[in-house]
Amino acid sequence: MAKLDIINVPDPLLRTTSDPVGQVDDELRRLMDNMLETMYAAPGIGLAAIQVAVPKRIIVVDTDGEEDERKPLFLVNPEIIWESAEFNIYNEGCLSVPEHYAEVERPASVKVKYLNYDGKAQEQMIDGLLATCVQHEIDHLNGVVFIDYLSKLKRNMIIKKVQKADRETKVL
Ligand code: K1U
Ligand code: ZN
Asked: I need a labelling partner for 59 at 20 to 30 A (CA). Which of 50, 100, 110, 127 fits?
């Protein structure tokens, strides 16, 4: 497995709509394994392929935390087919917007349809942090970043701070 580079805002790749996957084959599974290693190393609880500059509709998530109890989910071509009328607010972060967090409101529960690691079609009801995380990652597949839910002023301020921090890291 290999750790991949995560791109940050304002990289224009983060604004692209990712392409559906045709077939889940060994090459795609290798990408999913590398995404998972990258996510755990970051550390994070989710990662979309576009965050490692691959415009394919793939996300990996693991919101359970403990290293000895890892339960990763691989979602290929994920689609939300139902969402609850009830909403949750969560203080979200993003590996492509390092060090910045903001409250975002999203449906509390969703039903998601996807292909799993073996290419098998699945439908699953999810709630809590997992539902928040899956919605955040599906947003990435549509070129949406969580800071888009904030005011333009706050969003631009965060982008400038991330750019400045990245410039300073490059110089070191
Ligand atoms: O960049 C990403 O898409 C990953 C992001 C996922 C996410 C976090 C919170 C709410 C919705 C979606 C992260 O993983 S940011 C890092 C983070 O939240 C975290 C890191 C270590 C332990 C626990 C959480
Ligand atoms: Zn993110």
From this structure: 100
